[in-house]
Amino acid sequence: MADANPFEIDGFVNETMPEQVQLMRQEIPAWFALAEDTNRTMMRIQRAAKDAVRTNSMDPQAIAVRLLIRACYSLQGVIVMTERGMVAEARMLVRSIAEDAIYLAALVSNPDDFIAKLKEDSDAARARQGKFLLAEKLVQEGQREKLMEAVEGIGKVKNFNVRDLAGKGPLTGMYLTYLRLSDDAGHMSAKSIDRHIHRNDDGTWLYKVGPGTAEDNAATLYHAVMAAIAVGVGITDLIEATRAGSNFRELADRVAAMPAVPTV
Question: 68 — phi, psi (to 5°)?
Fold first, then answer.
């Protein structure tokens, strides 16, 4: 047992993780530096945005600030998971940042339309949950009629359509990243579960555990930084107070100068 792979015993919370983190970071130090500089810029803009926007919660700027906060914390999660080699888990959060970027671009382009769709999406979620409770008889009999009335009162509504929103803003290309990350990590798919096996040249295969490769980690950080920059640019377009100190052009130039990474 002493020689057992620690990833087989405790996974990514095993006792060797401090050493593993150092190794992961040493393999691609420039990518981690770029991701952390991006995070620091995002956090600086977040502070400026929170100080500047004091309005009702459904104001476009207030919604934008909340999208920014969501993206900031997701980016930090990406860094923490990537330094441990947790590729799929980190990419789930990269997908979330790409989604935030698409939503923010749609919000900037047409705030009234976005807010209407946001409210409709909330109603659709409540209706779907209510219908499930009714269909599976998971509600007390005394509450059934009240729930039915509430569901019927919502009417015919739709959930957010990410593709539709991407087409309404300047980030149509970000939707392809969103799709690839969905297939690669965000959803259960043939590709996402294939991550957990190793195929041999002779056609045989083995289950695979442990951290991802430096190339996978670099690709993860690349897409995280690109999506975060898109969020940052959207915020600076909408909230003037965030423009001071935003250096997204410099960050984008640094990304362009980095070595190519594998396609997700």
Answer: -65, -45
Separation between Cα atoms, residue 226 and residue 253, nearest integer Å: 11
DSSP character string of 32-58: HHHHHHHHHHHHHHHHHHHHH--S-TT
For 40-50, what is each residue's pLDDT tens digit? Answer: 999 999 999 99
Dihedral in degrees, nearest 10, Cα atoms 36, 41, 43, 45: -170
Query: Are 261 and 225 in contact, with CB atoms under 8 Å apart?
Result: no
Long-range contacts from 16-20, C-beta under 8 angstroms, 24+ separation? 17/84, 20/84, 20/85, 20/211
In angstroms, how far is the first alpha carbon of the chain from the final one? 36
Record the pTM.
Answer: 0.94
Question: How big is the chain by its Cα radius of gyration, in Å?
Answer: 22
Name 205's bridge partners: 199
For 142-168, what is the mean pLDDT?
89
Strand partners, 199: 205
Rounded (to 5) percent helix, strand, coil in the chain: 75, 0, 25
Burial status of residue 212 (CB atoms within 10 A of its CB: 0-12, 13-18, 19 or more): buried
